[in-house]
Amino acid sequence: MIDDRDPYERLLSSLADDTPADWDEAHRALGSRAEPLRDLSRIAAFHRGLQRGAAVDDVPAEWGTLTLLERIGRGARSEVWRAWDRTLRREVALKLLRGGASGPIAAGASEAALLDEARAAARVSHPNVVVVHGVARHGDHAGLWMEYVGGASLATTVKDAGPLAPREAAALAADLASALAALHAAGVCHRDLKPANVLRAENGRWVLADFGLGLSRDVRASFAPSAAGTPMYLAPELFRGEPHTGASDQYALALTAWFAMTGRDAFAAGTFEERATLAARPEPPRLRDALPGADPALAAILERALAHDPAARFASAAAFEQALRGWIARGGKRPHPIAWAAVTIAVLAVAAAAWNAARERTPVTVAPGAAAPAPPATPVSGGYAVSATFARRGADAREPLGDGARVKPGDRLSLDVHVTRPAHVYVLNEDDNGERYLLFPQPLFDQRNPVAANTTVTLPGTVGGVENAWTVTSRGGRERFLVVVSPEPVAELEAELSRLPAPRPGRPITYASVPTGAIERLRGVGGVATLSPRERAAPGSAGAFDQFRALAGRETDVRGVWVRQIVLENPR
Amino acid sequence: MPPDSPLHETSELLRLAKDGDERARETLLARYLPRLQRWASGRLPAWARSLVDTSDVVQDVFLRTLQGLDRIEVRGPGIFQAYVRRAVLNRIRDEVRWASRRPGPDGVPEDLAAHGPTPLEQAITADTLARYEEALAALGDDERELVHLRLELDFAYDEIARMTGRPSADAARMATRRAIARVAEVMEAHRPGGAS
Asked: Domain of life, per the record (chain B) (predicted)?
């Protein structure tokens, strides 16, 4: 039998199956033994390129320090390749402009414009904007290389899994509006915002890709349907030959949000002429025609961004974002959106404190509020019993997962908790990169703290009455879960919760407001909140959960805070 | 042969083609020719592209091989692909040599014929390609066929299973995986500084 825990076997499988391999890890684990497989993977990638239609006449096998691996996209004027940066040893996405010396970008002026625009874009640093690494010309080809985002596009996600709930789509749109605001501040227009250009990174973040290269000023040319058949998301003024502005981007974003929540394009047009006719109508499309249950306030926001007259739209992308965030914050009965990054840090601080105090004691328990003197701790009379078990959820089966069990992307996980007195439960996740997420509690879950005594409570439980599960969305190598149980609210954490800062642009706040059903798609293990690179680099962040005892069976006579971890293998 | 005939195995098609079955011949052509032509384009140096038409070369080699089936002893399922692959490579080499001897449109210097890299060499270096070819030569026909079909011609496992007479895609996958492992082993043994 093949042991895919063996790095060599895993590489062989990825080679045989044409799935991505982590060559950095392979070189670390195998040293030069990985080399022949690496060579074979290059040979295979080269041939796949030939077989899947790479035009070897047009596209070089190498471009600067990049080796082209696989074509992942093709537009009217450019191709996007997954490429390998030989110098920095990482995968990147490379956008190569079509056409050699006689191609559309050969004229010095257009190329200079491209370079200027890409340079400006490269200055933008925003969590929802793909990171541009550089732009150059090698031989006949000008191109731009950037962060490789492996995830599916919004277009694919909606096609495969159906539309997002309006609140979720609004949250996505707010993130993208914030991204547009950053681009516009740098003097760049996206020019080609559409669902196919919105990608989901493995950690759940939505990223705006493929910007600034809408070189064509010819509206008709850009109507040519791409391979994915995406219609254009052009604003009416562009049909009149007016220049592309930030307001045109705003319009495209509103159409993208529309698609995200309805699963359809606002304008159903098969030809350029049909689309142009629709664009000439002074009235914006009505969201409630497409989505009768839509909140009128949300419809009003979208329709304002879709105003025929650019001047009637929001004054800026930032204003559009603000309106969306305001709606999210006001909408429904759910509490204010919360800056989850801050929560995660707070929880970790608590968890670490619990352990530090616990080192001197046996068993691993800490008096509640030990680090915060304020409220007098309610004495726990006698101990209580805890049992907590992770399970993988099938259609009608529930498979218990022990320490070291294996999970894979797509697996749905839940946690069964049984306590003999009402208790506050906190569930955290840390992946192989040291990124941590608060999985429970979250305002969107129906289940709140404390959980009831003497009954088995399944977390995360339901959202709006529909059962949900945490979904493994990425290959994390190793998933560590920390389960914290306490008869009392954990004082430091609750205090942090209550004084969280108001949402601001760029903060990963939006997943708290995801309603029914949509959650599995959007979030999951690794999909909630990410620590900033600085926080990730903080000392002791790697494998911080390792300090905790493994989760095992039922434990009786627990006193104070109980903290256990379980490690699930999630091989790359 | 009806289109839904279960007789899809390459060896069976070859047997029929040898007996003059036109549809078997067409099936073989349709199955391999486009992929072989694309594959061959990676083996032709860029400078020779205007002088040698790989599509013609591949088609010619393929048809000649089919006509000459009597001369090929079809022992194992992999012998045909191995033969065609080798024959195409040899033929390209000959064509390139020939092309380099006549004055090309740009007056291609003679020594380019020996040194002009092919796109595949550009992608992986000539040394690596030599080690790869050496390793392939060290394999059995069956193994070589699997590597050729999967890594070079990009066939899916269910097609490979059907072509090589294996019971399932998974069986084809396991066999291919073993063959790839063998290539890697031989390449490792031949690597400068590698295990010997």
From this structure: Bacteria
